[in-house]
Each structure stands twice: as structure tokens, then as C-alpha cells.
Amino acid sequence: MLLVWVLEVACGKKIRLLSYARVTLFCESSGYLMEDQACNGLRLWAENFEHLTTMHPVDPGQAPANWCEIDAVGPALDRIKVVPLPMAYRPDQFAKHYSATRQVIRNEIENADYLSFSIGGLFGDWGSVACYQAYCMNRPYAVWTDRVESEVVRRTSTSGSWRNRVRAKLTHRPMAQLERYLIRRSELGLFHGKETFDTYAPYCSNPHIVHDIHIKKDDHIKPSLVDEKAASTETGPLKIIYVGRADAMKGGLDWVEVLSRLAQEGVQFQATWIGDGDDLLQMEKKAVEYGLDDRVSFPGFLSNRSDVLGELQKADVFMFCHKTPESPRCLIEALISGTPIIGYDGAFARDLISKNGGGRLVELNNVDGLSNVMCDLHRNRNELAALIRNAASDGAEFDDEHVFEHRSELIRRYL
Predict the structure, then answer these.
(1) Which of 194, 278, 351, 355 sits most deeply, having the most CB atoms within 10 A of its CB?
(2) Cα–Cα dist 292/271, whole Å
(3) Do the beta carbons of residue 190 and residue 210 sit within 8 Å?
(4) What's residue 4's pLDDT?
(5) CA–CA separation, 355 and 360 (whole Å)
(6) d(Cα 68, Cα 288) in Å, to the nearest integer?
(7) pLDDT digits (tens, 9 = 90+) for 106-140
(8) 3-state helix, strand, coil in the chain (%, to 5)
(9) Phi first, then psi: what are they for 49, rounded to 5°?
């Protein structure tokens, strides 16, 4: 395969990657709009392949105000073809669009040299459809996923509306079976983070841990600022932060409960949860009930990533209560900001701090244990300062160019 690739390059043939990502497109008169990080992802793929064809579901609604035109990709745009696919997450919509969309996907597979598809769902998951069509066409493909979607659905089947609970109970098992079926037939498994890798590796003949992040080298906290930050923790309230969705998977109510325990122990702190979500109002209500409204702020979603990274660099601790097996990028963003990750144990978090120990972990759902760790850090500021330096060291290896180059090389090597 390597010889074929070298000959293709020597002959001037374009090396064409076909991908599917569940990132939503919005179509407006000026063109397609996409999340800014997804635009950066297109740019990075195009830097590693001569031509990129990328398939995405299209939302017929109004794009969020902070989404940008795909033109933001820059000069590489002329080597990128965007293929819109229908958004069909309801069974009736999926059945309606299946035949026509299946043919579109097959046509794109025929014209591509390399295939890499994101999976994670059941109805309307065109990535799974693409994997199966590639298998039927005897084309090797890579499967990529950043979390164990079926397990996320299973663990959230006891929350939300009755419709969502019923849907989750009916779909999580067939979803898991589909995931394993497609992964077994792939030539390459690209699994974001240790949590996802540990779950899917037994079903894959060629599994690899990869990362999907959009952190640039310039986003990392400067070494001189790491020392200043460590020294500044000697006195003053403990500055606690979280960045992410406020929903059941993220354990927001546990997060507020830990803060209430800290207040009961006399710990001085200021805490911030940056992000929107279904649980946000309930979290705010709990904070008021506990008398924490002067110590906890909920500013909502911040669209400017520089502002978010600035807040992360100011914080002493990134406290999290994640309840599902996923690989949240916010933990990496905390580490590159020199902010120790303190929260519930999981393979992903454990792997991130395995080299330098830039955090502390307790067992899942252990509110008491997490409260005790936070109290200890408040009282032992020397340990906190050491954790800050360790966190910066653990985050040093993560940047977008490196991780996309790694994934691209795996695709070229094994497909």
C-alpha cells in the first residue's frame, strides 16, 4: 500500500480522503455555515491530504450566531468538497431518505482513495451507513468515534422526558450491536481517548488511541505564567472552574453538591460553570438553596475561545463530575492551561495525567471523596502549586496540528 501511495504522489494523482462527521451544517444564501472548530478540522485534514470530501447532515433551521462560513477554512477550501446529507434522526425520516442518501454515499466511496467515518447513533447515523456500504463494496475503512454513544444513551435512560427515556431503553442495545458490527469489519479503529479505546479495542483488529482537539500551540499557557500561577495559589479563595454542557452526563448537580460541602467545611472559594444546558436552571436553583449564590457564577456559553482559555488559566482547579464513558476535550483544555483536573475517575482522565500526575481522581459518584480532595487542596497549597506545574506538563503534548497529522498518518499507513 505504501508503494502504491508513493507512485500515486509521483504521478501527480490526488490523494482523496472521504470522511463523514456528525457535525451539523447550516445552509444559507452565502453558503454553508459550520462550527468554528469544525472549520479548523477541515483545514487540518486538507493540509494532510490532497483532496477532502466531507459529508455532513444539514439542519434546515437557523444557524447559531457564533457559527462561521466554511470560507474561514482559508486557501485550502478549493481542495474541499462538501456533501450535504439530510438530517434524519427520526425513524420515519431515516426510512424516507435512506435509499437516495445511500446512493450518494456509494458514489462518493467509489471516487475516494481513503475512507474514514464517524459513527455513533442508530437512525440517521449516515456514518454507520457509510461503513456498511464500504464493507459491501470491499473497501477498507477507518471508523472514528469520540465516545461510547450506546453507553451514554443507556446511562441517561432514567432522566429527561418520558419519550426520551423510552427511546433510550429501546435503542441503546441495538446501537451497541451496530457499533461492534461495524468496528469488527473496519481496517482501522481511531478511538478518541482511553475511555473510548478500552471499550472498543476488543472488537477491532487494529485499534489506536487518537485525539480530536483544536488547541493550537499558542493556546498553551506560557512557562513563565505557570510559575506565577503556582505562586499565586499560596493565599486567597480557591478558584474553581468547569467548562461544558450543563446536563446529566456532566454531573452538574453533583458539582453544586460538592461546593455545598466545601462551604460547610469553611473552605473559601469562587466557582464558575461556563456553559449552557438543560440542567443549568436546576443547578442555579440548588446553588441559591445552599446559600452559594455569592460564590458561584453561571455565565452561560462563551463563544470566544480566547475568553474561555483565559478563564481556565486564571483558575486553580478544574473540577468535574462526568458520569459517562466519553473523552471530553475540556479536560485537555484545562491541562494546557496549567489547571489540574480534579474529579470522577475514568480511563480518559486517568490516561491524560498518567505521566506527570496533573490531577486527582476519585471513584464515580463519590461526592464525599471529591469534597475531601478539594478540602485537602485548599489546606495544602504547596500540593496545589505542584499540581499546577504537573498539569501544564501533562498538557504540553496536545495541539491540533500534531493530532491531525497523527490520524492522517494512520489512515495512509493502514488503508
Answers:
(1) 194
(2) 9
(3) yes
(4) 46
(5) 13
(6) 37
(7) 999 999 999 999 998 889 999 999 999 999 999 99
(8) 50, 20, 30
(9) -135, 150
